[in-house]
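Order emerges. One example.
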Amino acid sequence: MQPEPNDARWLAAAARLASRGRPLSRPNPAVGCILVKEGRVVARGWTREGGRPHAEAAALDHAGEAARGATAYVTLEPCAHRSLRGPACADRLIEAGVPRVVVGVEDPDPRTAGEGIARLSAAGIAAALLPIPEAEASLAGYLTRATRGRPHVTLKLATSLDGCIAMADGQSQWITCAAARAHVHSRRALTDAILVGGGTWRADKPRVDVRLPGLEDRSPQRILLTRGIPPDGVKVINAPGQIDRLDGVQYLYVEGGAQVAASFLAEDLVDRIELYRAPIVIGAGKHALGDIGLASLGEAHGRWTLAEQRQLGSDTYEAYSRTR
């Protein structure tokens, strides 16, 4: 199947739509689907709470007969396996009379893994992969779980211009402005779990929840990195490498402190850094990171790529993706 001029644009829109399902779609990935006919959107769908309905099913249910003749843009390959919770999405697309399906990412699940596209093609549907960065990024947690056996890890840092996270006496509230702090809560709402270190827990008693109106129910599971006794309602791991034991966690948000951040970087477990930088200089304060184990300056280069940048009030937000 040859791509059409607007295929990448519609698929990128489906990837943005997928974020509506995250993280409530767990244990399933958050997938987006858009049905387009004659240049107009017929219906949209994303994976709903608990993983059902799938994005394709939600879009097809909304479209009804209008789905016939439409192109389906879906971020992840339509599933090919039937379950007790519903029919395979590949079969639903065939039955709906969709003549064309554009897929962003092949499903690594061995129950589908190319079979979804093959089934569509066998039914006479023009179906093909169109790999775009937006689709892969929207499925980062699911894909990291499938390929690395662990959650996708985002390290959040909030610093002064000179890289400090607190005054020398530990005072840290607040380095960043209200707009930046609200943005942090919006990022928390997209994660399955937030991790902090035992020192941060004891010193700051952080709530590590979501406090944006209407999104309070998105507060993630709390994880503590410590060898101490776990507080009530908080899961504990003893080392960064144990994040593979966090069942049901696709997206892990690491907030601190400095030694925790350094330990995750030292073990190369960070997939994304989100840096909030305030226009202040502290001087003799507490620095954002400890030793991350680099033997030479050359080892520091080529590891990170700027993925996003914006202004949040007086502060600057930058996101960097790990180059692997």
About this structure: The first strand starts at residue 32 and ends at 37. The chain has nine helices and 15 strands. The CA atoms of residues 159 and 165 lie 5 Å apart. The mean pLDDT is 91.
